[in-house]
Write a structure and sequence with these properties.
With 182 residues, this protein is mainly alpha-helical. The chain has helices at 6-19, 29-39, 47-64, 76-89, 92-110, 120-129, 135-145, 155-167, and strands spanning 26-27, 74-75, 117-118, 153-154. It contains 8 helices and 4 strands; from the N terminus they run αβααβααβααβα. Bound molecules: calcium ion (2 copies). One calcium ion binds at residues 111, 113, 115, 117-119, 122.
Length: 182
């Protein structure tokens, strides 16, 4: 218990609920694969971008939702327990590196016009696809991500926010907003 701060645990739970779109409290690898398939076709110019996107996601999924979990699936408590385990074994570094890889490639998939920045509309399109697109939420999230207030989200702003979501123990960080979409 001691190696998982309350705030980090809260964020893991927030993220689990974000993934659990049908709210049945259980996630299966197949649920994740549906998302991976969607993401790996979003705004790709060619097959190699699609394959690369998929690889980035699979690196994380293979650690957190390995095929051996099979039909049983993963509950919210199991999910938290996995991260507790990763932190106790040091595997958390590998998991966090995989997360960072995902945010890098996520940025590329969201940057529909490929200008190297995310506009509010590009961000909104992503959350719209997840069923959450109310303007108040998008405005709050965009303000959080746009650290230098230039009206755009850069790759480093997105990646740093994503990394902070998984690693920051600062209870005032506010990064849980990224997945509070239910
Ligand atoms: Ca853009
Ligand atoms: Ca910015």
């Amino acid at each position: 218990m001691s190696n998982l701060g309350e705030y980090i645990e809260k964020k893991y739970r927030v993220f689990f609920r974000y993934l659990d779109r049908n709210h049945d409290g259980v996630l299966h690898r197949s649920d994740l694969m549906k998302r991976v398939d969607t993401m790996s076709h979003m705004n790709v110019a060619n097959q190699s971008e699609s394959i690369y996107t998929r690889q980035c996601w699979l690196r994380w999924c293979d650690k957190v939702f390995p095929p051996k979990d099979g039909k049983k699936g993963v509950t919210e408590d199991d999910f938290v327990e996995k991260f507790r385990h990763f932190r106790s074994t040091g595997e958390i570094d590998e998991v966090n590196a995989a997360s960072e890889g995902i945010y890098n490639v996520l940025f590329d998939r969201l940057d529909a016009n490929r200008d190297g920045h995310l506009s509010r509309d590009e961000l909104k399109a992503f959350y719209q696809a997840l069923g959450k697109a109310d303007d108040t939420f998008i405005d709050r999230l965009f303000r959080k991500l746009d650290v230098n207030h230039d009206g755009l989200v850069s790759k480093s702003e997105l990646v740093e926010a994503g990394v902070a979501f998984w690693t920051s123990e600062d209870v005032n960080s506010g990064y849980e907003i990224m997945y509070e979409i239910n």
